[in-house]
Amino acid sequence: MIKYRKAGEMKDSGVEWIGGIPRDWEIRNLKYIGFTKSGLGNKKPKDFGHGYPFISYKNIYKNLVVEETYPDLVDSTEADRENFSVLRGDAFFTGSSETIEELGIASMCIKDISNATYNGFSIRFRPHSLSQYYPECMKYYFRSQAAREHLIRNDNSITRANLSQKLLKMLPVLLASFNQQKKIANFLDLKTTQFDSIISKKEQLIKKLEEAKKSLISEVVTGKVKIVDGKLVPRDLSEMKDSGVEWLGMIPRDWAVKKIKHIAECYPSNVDKKTMKGEKRVRLCNYRDVYYNDYITDDLAFMKATATISQIKKFTLKKGDIVLTKDSESPDDIAIASYIDGCVENLVCGYHLTLIRDIKGSIDLYVYYQLMSTGARNYFETVANGVTRYGIGIFGFVNLQVCIPNIEEQEKISKYIRSYINEQAKIIININNQIRKLKQAKQSLISEAVTGKIDLRDWKIIEGELQ
Fold it and tell me: In the structure, how many helices (H) and strands (E) does the chain have?
């Protein structure tokens, strides 16, 4: 049973979104308990992938605690390693993001990491002393809504969100006694582990559903199975031939194999997120819109930007267009495709995306499902170039080889896959809603603990690894 402090034990923090805090707690701006420093920013792509440990943006963004088993390396100098060192108690904040809500995500270093440096798109906070600052507790505070609200409310970015050291230094920090911080950390380690276990199981279920979707699409669009009376039936080997393409394997004898450049036009977009005087106002379809949606529809919340007349003419999206992400932090997470499903008003394809359109001799929806297949995904992974961030040029897209049956077969396949995806989407939406509520409950618990609203004075610390 969680116990809350009584109103008489609290005082006004003076911060609207934090509210009351225990009377014996302190509140200080971050600048009074330590100092900030931007990361290593003078490196070129050739410097990565070898050398010394490197804390990447992705490492910070995805982990509450800086991951020690990082794969990232950089060719850093002795001066680099001295100036951009990574020690216990260092908190790293992401310094740039596509949205304000994702700005200033923090990750805590729990123990010194020898010879490590950190990336230039983050800001390191280092406390003057650990005598009143318990990193295991502060890792929760810096990611809590109490801390995040300061960054979200006070950021003045217009296009891409950027965190200034000036704003970060003014972050209000709540300091309980050192012993209380240890109890808060232990309590939250236990409770968040319980939440994370439930969330992880639900996320694994979604992952299995997504893998099943990829597998089914791959089997259908390469003709390994055929649709008979609304059901999938394996094709007999006598009906098949070698496609001559490794990632396609065997395909039906009457199917053709063609490169994208022979059936469609392909255009990498150059429309950025800026709002420029003299340009026309547009809605912008961004990387995130494509990455998180199988279908792009007019009712999605798109960001506003501007574009030139020539950009609008070339990149205004229309029904049947296919849009793919053209870069990523890992080669196995690139060329994610989305289909423009219906009329979209004044919507332009944004930067970091490639547009495939004007498909000839094939159904656009069928080609889209080809791009979603496991074979296509494997192909894109092999042609992605990069070290710390990967990209695919236009030649990588246009040289993808796809299976082309007759139009009647394409229509049947498109209809079947669409129905399957729609039914599966209902299940995934339901699971995602459950995950969202669990994450909200977890975040609420963290905020109530790190602001002292939950009374943990009598909490008995549980030693050892928490399960």
Answer: 12, 30
Check: CB of residue 55 under 8 Å from CB of residue 121.
no
Question: Of all residues in the chain, what percent are helix, strand and coil, respectively (each to 5)?
Answer: 40, 25, 35
- Helical H runs in 20-161? 57-62, 78-83, 135-143, 145-154
Q: SS3 sequence, 202-239?
A: HHHHHHHHHHHHHHHHHHHHCCCEEEECCEEEECCHHH
Indicate the SS3 state at residue 408. Answer: helix
Q: Does residue 148 share a domain with residue 44?
A: yes
Domain boundary residue, one of 385, 404, 423: 404
Which residue type does 199 have?
Answer: I
Q: Which residues of the chain have pLDDT under 50?
A: 466-467
- Taking the C-alpha atoms of residue 70 and residue 109, their distance in angstroms, rounded to an integer, is 13
Range of the domain at 77: 10-175
pLDDT at 328: 87
Q: 133 and 19, same structural domain?
A: yes
The tally of domains found in the chain comes to 2
User: Does residue 213 belong to any structural domain of this protein?
Assistant: no
Q: State phi, psi for 87 to the nearest 5 degrees.
A: -125, 160
The C-alpha atoms of residue 107 and residue 64 are separated, in whole angstroms, by: 5
Report the C-alpha gap between 202 and 330 in whole angstroms: 24
Same domain, 157 and 287: no
Which domain CATH number covers 261? 3.90.220.20
Picking from 365, 389, 404, the residue at the C-terminal end of a domain is 404
Residue 115, token pair as written in the block = 């010879």
- Predicted TM-score (pTM) of the model is 0.82
Asked if 320 contacts 340 with a C-beta cutoff of 8 angstroms, the reply is yes
Rounded to the nearest 10 degrees, what angle do helices 145-154 and 135-143 cross at? Answer: 50
